[in-house]
């Protein structure tokens, strides 16, 4: 099945909004082996959209449009599609009623402009939108099926799950492709490549994709074919990759490092605080993104100045004078002080030069010291020297700090990473 995607919205042609909806749609296509042949971004112009669509109708059996279903005059998707297909369009009163009811639920009157969202192209099936006011539409035009979906990403995700995936499953049975994901923290991409190289030979290079982001790599293994065979192959690939990569695999699927660390803290029944200088609370921010993190995360001391490192964490002036704020000694003193004064089982401390200024020959930009204090004292220390801009250095520091804690908890608990599945026997650390 050949398919096309049309993202509608003038803002998507500018520099402030990126079309991400087509990626969500593409993911659904990939799962079902649909061949995406073309995608385009079109501004809010009825003429442009009708012309673009007319060009796509022959040669594509499936066209998914997203955006432009809102109530304002720049929302032209419905009328442009009607025009390209030479069909009529009319307002359905029962849909107006449903939209008005949504507004009433929120204690509001429906503005008159929202009537437009009840426009239905002749021959189209209305797709109720559980997450917003704009209903979607599905229609057949000769051999081509068109889906019109809303542009708000959260609403689109709902529509993909409710309508697109079931439709694909019905029309493309047996063709399903599935992907297993392994998430890897703080391993250089080249090291990872070396480790997984044998799997390329065993399963085929095209079956395994590596997506690298700073300090966070996704290894994706995919397989197609009949369900039993596909599942077996995915299982075999996952086990093999786990064994090759080892403990650096922190999760399977879409779990974040802070979720995994949180789950380990919860299982161990211990608490954590952070003491942060160059990261300004980023580690604490990431930890508190996870619902329920108050079970194990107590809080943070953001001690940017030397004065606060002394006053809040009890770092001694002599230590600061002798080694400077960016040093192993001060990171350790921050961690010990935070653990003691804030009353937690564990403390992570970070101090460094995030740049762009402030670097010296001895301590260039990117120098970051991270210390972990546990009930046994300072359990681990890392000195980082990553290149990059301020945000990248801060992000990588938070990533390494969380990974240090994850590794420590894994070894004290003698367990595997939550969500990481089984770790391979004799895997490299
Ligand atoms: P619309 O349905 O065109 O009114 O879009 C509603 C909101 O969703 C706007 O804030 C858009 O910026 C956003 N949006 C629309 N299309 C996309 C897209 N393709 N990718 C990401 N966001 C989008
Ligand atoms: Mg729009």
What does this structure look like?
- By secondary structure, the protein is of the alpha/beta class.
- Helix content is 40%, strand content 24%.
- The protein is built from 13 helices and 17 strands.
- It has helices spanning 21-31, 46-57, 77-85, 93-105, 153-171, 189-203, 227-245, 257-268, 282-288, 306-313, 317-323, 328-342, 390-413; strands at 2-8, 35-42, 62-66, 89-91, 119-121, 125-127, 136-141, 144-149, 178-185, 208-213, 216-223, 249-252, 272-276, 297-302, 346-352, 367-374, 377-385.
- The strands form four sheets. The chain has a six-stranded mixed beta sheet, sandwiched between helices.
- β13, α9 and β14 form a beta-alpha-beta unit.
- α8 runs parallel beside α13.
- The longest helix has 24 residues, at 390-413.
- It is elongated, with a radius of gyration of 27 Å.
- Residues 9, 44, 67-68, 70, 75, 151 line the site of magnesium ion (MG).
Helix-strand blueprint:
Layout: E1 2-8, H1 21-31, E2 35-42, H2 46-57, E3 62-66, H3 77-85, E4 89-91, H4 93-105, E5 119-121, E6 125-127, E7 136-141, E8 144-149, H5 153-171, E9 178-185, H6 189-203, E10 208-213, E11 216-223, H7 227-245, E12 249-252, H8 257-268, E13 272-276, H9 282-288, E14 297-302, H10 306-313, H11 317-323, H12 328-342, E15 346-352, E16 367-374, E17 377-385, H13 390-413
Parallel strand pairs: 1-2, 1-3, 3-8, 13-14, 13-15
Antiparallel strand pairs: 4-5, 6-7, 7-8, 9-11, 9-12, 10-11, 15-16, 16-17
Helix pairs in contact: 1-5, 2-3, 6-7, 8-13
The structure holds adenosine monophosphate (AMP) and magnesium ion.
The site of magnesium ion has 7 residues, from loops.
